[in-house]
Specification:
lyase; EC 4.1.1.44; AhpD-like; 2 domains; about 80% helix
Length: about 120
């Protein structure tokens, strides 16, 4: 395992939590293993591990981008990750307010619904 891969895995675990990463790792097989390795090294090892901005800031950026692009499953995953990144519910709402202006009210409205449900699930857990 390369140093970049090790760093990516450590960052991925810090942000998403061990339970999520363990499930994802257990579910990968010969078909998607190369993809999992690529995102661990590229997204988590190169981008999330840069240290130029905080995990909180990166979390807010990621949530806004995912919402603006309509990536619902990934959006819920990253809303759950706010428990580890330090981004508050207010931070998430601020990010989604930006989505409304720059990517469209329907995208933001849908994302706010996803965030509300995800935060409710997190509170119930």
């Amino acid at each position: 395992m390369s140093e970049r891969m090790k760093q990516g895995m450590a960052t991925r675990r810090r942000v998403l939590g061990n339970a999520h990463v363990d499930r994802a790792e257990a579910a990968k097989d010969g078909f998607d293993a190369p993809f999992q390795e690529m995102i661990t090294e590229a997204a988590w090892g190169h981008v999330w591990s840069r240290g130029t901005i905080t995990d909180r800031e990166r979390s807010m950026l990621t949530i806004a981008l995912l919402a603006g692009l309509g990536n619902d499953a990934e959006l819920a995953l990253h809303v759950r990750a706010t428990a580890n990144t330090g981004a508050s519910r207010e931070d998430v709402l601020e990010a989604l307010m930006h989505v409304a202006i720059y990517a469209g009210v329907p995208r933001a409205n849908h994302a706010i619904g996803i965030a509300k449900r995800t935060f409710e699930e997190m509170g119930a857990a």
